[in-house]
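Q: Here's a chain of 57 amino acids. Please give me its 3D structure as tokens.
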Amino acid sequence: MEALHRRVGELELGNALVREVLALIDECIHWCNYDRIKQSLDVMSPVQYWLSHGLAA
């Protein structure tokens, strides 16, 4: 995600709309990894599942 932010900065597209879109993408990624629970992951979020199985870095 940082690479995307950096690339946008390099292109000097740093207007409010681009920043809003990047913020929404960050929120979606956070939700998918931390808040969304999956039945196939023992009703845990992906991060909870990874941590419970010692798979997180």
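Q: Can you summarize the key feature?
A: DSSP finds three helices and no strands in the chain.
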